[in-house]
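tool_call: predict_structure(chain=1)
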Amino acid sequence: MPTATRILPDWYLRSRLKMRQVLLLVALDEQRNVHRAAASLRMTQPAATRLLGGLERMLGLRLFERGPRGLVPNAYGESLIRHARAMLATLDHARDEMNSLAEGASGRIAIGALLVAAPVLVPLALARFKQRHPNHTVLVHEGSATALLPALRRGELDLVVGRVSTDVPAEGLDFEAFYSEPMQVVARVGHPLARRRSLKLRDLAGQMWIVPAPDAPYRRRLDAAFRQAGVTPPSRLVESVSIAVNKMLVQKTDMLGVMPRDVAREYAALGLLRVLRVKLPPPSGPVGVITAIGRPLPPAAADLVQALREVARAARGRA
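tool_result:
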């Protein structure tokens, strides 16, 4: 098949691309097999083959290569699949928003909240937002950067609130920094270590810990800090990025947890946890809001970003 030597005009894809071809691209990426992809879309294999062939002829490009594990998208295919997923996510947003409107709401946005922002920054900003948009629905997904940032790129989320680490690929993403926030060690009320006025990281290596997963940027920094202190990183672990699970485990056991400063202070002020006086390595980036480059925010999502800015300014003042 010939290789494209020029970019197609805007109208070409808009007028000739079929929705069934968009659905087929995503199905092929998931199934890596024409027969299974066709079955998932309730079409015959010959029909799927014709759709894919028509799309490749229209573009003048081959989109998939046949490998030992089935069809594998090449660079052109991966690019088009990424945009196909974004198109389908936009349509899903439209469906959800129309359903919300039919149920009496005025619209719907979806956001992601990383651990650093989920317990304090996001709830306070949502409270402000709901004062201004009482009928607007906000869907909040809590998780790790490795899960939420790909969803943002695919168009499944309007924005993500949290920390962008220098260790996480930021291609296609825009980041607005709000403030820097250190990490702190927390323990249950009455924990024997809570009475210690001077602690070093090497004193805590033998404790049970709740830490992020091994692929999390801060986990790597924490393990490196233990090694720099001359001890092996803790081995008695629970790996979790759920703030609710982490808080309950710290409250009910002798396990130590790692939390952002504002989160730790909030729980300490409520008498739920104690902050240990030990120095931790700094996080790899500031807290802020992450959006997709080239995809304008809906007006309501832009208003939520403004509410996040206002709460962040207040947080900086408290710090």
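agent: The longest helix spans residues 75-102. Proceeding to next step.
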